[in-house]
Specification:
Oligomer: heterodimer
Shape of chain A: globular
Structural class of chain A: mainly alpha
Structural class of chain B: alpha+beta
Order of helices and strands of chain B: HEEEHEEEEEHHHEEE
Largest sheet of chain A: 2 strands, antiparallel
Strand content of chain B: 25-35%
Number of domains of chain B: 1
Radius of gyration of chain A: 19 Å
Number of helices of chain A: 8
Largest interface: A-B, 37 and 45 residues
Order of helices and strands of chain A: EEHHHEHHEHHHEE
Number of strands of chain A: 6
Radius of gyration of chain B: 18 Å
Distance between the termini of chain A: 52 Å
């Protein structure tokens, strides 16, 4: 049994490598500090712990929950209701996920795993672009999802491979449908 | 489990008086390291499960692309830096543990102390030195010393990382102490 440490982000020569000693990095500074004091007897002086605006951003990240499959499925089939409900707008899920991704980057955090019935923020952006037949964006985000899978030592999935290599053949391609009446779904 | 190992396990079996649990200290055969140790605590009832999780005969190279440098923040002491550029997903470090032990352990601190001392004492001298020179967060400041079973237990508590030893699971039932990994700072 060996341990393997992999880079989650690109690291430049002579840059420091770190990992987190505690579980939930989205908790406020005071709570993280208490956990580190309790478990490791030291006071952390990292950027996040010394920047008073960090707590607000981390709270915001925690509020931007990953997209549940249910929510994605509803968005797929609700294009016709976009004018009355902003949650069904074309860009609603993408905007929310991108906002979360930007905050994660700003806080120099990596997106954690999500439950099986949910999509990570990067997977959300990918899935929405596939559903809207936006090939260039889909391939770009598939690359991001793949990089994370590799970094987390995940097996290669057909889901991501297909999005990278033949997005038009992907099961989610052109998946955003509008219902004209209940019986006849029509592709947009 | 192979019968040879079974015999080795049995040799070091240390049963509780009431027969409810056992502690095993067993040599951990690995290709490029003379010895590391697993401390296995198990319920007599649950023997197969624990053994199956821990014994892994796959060989693997060990390497480290990390070097030690003085940290920019003096309070942090030293830091680990990479020796070249790395892309996301690349492996920076692969190594064997000095010691593996269950995260939930017997509450009998005297026994625990004895078990850890035996396991560490059985490491080859170079590995033993690696273990004994790791940080102990509680060494200088005992005000927060929460019933640690001696200095070596303090080292285990400071440096061990939770290991997912279940196939595809997420149990983190064991803690491992690794020589290079232990020196990577928190952020």
């Amino acid at each position: 049994m060996t341990v393997e440490v992999r880079a989650l982000r690109p690291i430049k020569k002579n840059q420091e490598v770190t990992f987190s000693y505690i579980d939930d990095l989205l908790r406020p500074t005071a709570e993280r500090q208490a956990n580190l004091r309790e478990g490791y007897n030291f006071t952390c002086q990292c950027d996040a712990c010394t920047d008073s605006s960090s707590d607000e951003r981390r709270t915001q990240i925690a509020r931007l929950e990953p997209t549940s499959l249910q929510e994605y499925a509803t968005w797929l089939t609700s294009a016709d209701k976009a004018s009355t409900n902003p949650k069904f707008a074309d860009d609603y899920l993408i905007d929310r996920a991108k906002q979360a991704i930007a905050l994660y980057m700003r806080e120099q955090l990596s997106e954690p795993d999500v439950p099986h019935n949910a999509l990570t923020h990067a997977e959300t952006v990918l899935a929405c672009h596939l559903a809207r037949c936006m090939k260039r964006e889909a391939v770009f985000w598939a690359g991001k999802v793949r990089t994370r899978e590799v970094a987390m030592s995940r097996p290669l999935t057909r889901y991501t491979t297909r999005a990278l290599n033949e997005p038009e053949q992907h099961e989610l391609w052109n998946g955003r449908v509008t219902y004209v009446g209940k019986e006849s779904p029509q592709k947009l | 489990m192979r019968s040879q190992e079974e015999a080795a396990f049995r040799k070091r079996l240390d049963k509780s008086k009431d027969g409810q649990w056992s502690i095993i200290i067993t040599p951990y055969h690995i290709p490029d390291v003379q010895n590391a140790f697993i401390i296995v605590y198990y319920d007599i009832e649950d023997k197969e499960r624990h053994n199956a999780q821990l014994v892994d005969h796959q060989t693997a190279d060990t390497f480290s692309h990390l070097r030690r440098r003085s940290a920019t923040n003096p309070a942090a002491g030293e830091m680990s830096v990479v020796t070249r550029d790395f892309a996301a997903g690349e492996i920076l470090l692969r190594e064997w543990p000095l010691l593996l032990m269950p995260r939930t352990f017997v509450s009998d601190y005297e026994r625990l102390k004895q078990v850890i001392e035996t396991a560490v004492g059985a490491l080859e001298p170079a590995r033993q030195l690696q273990f004994r020179t790791l940080a102990n967060a509680w060494r200088a400041d005992r005000s927060n010393w929460r019933g640690m079973a001696g200095d070596l237990h303090g080292i285990v508590s400071t440096n061990s990382v939770g290991l997912d030893t279940s196939p595809g699971g997420n149990e983190l039932a064991y803690g491992g102490v690794f020589p290079e990994l232990s020196k990577i700072n928190h952020r």
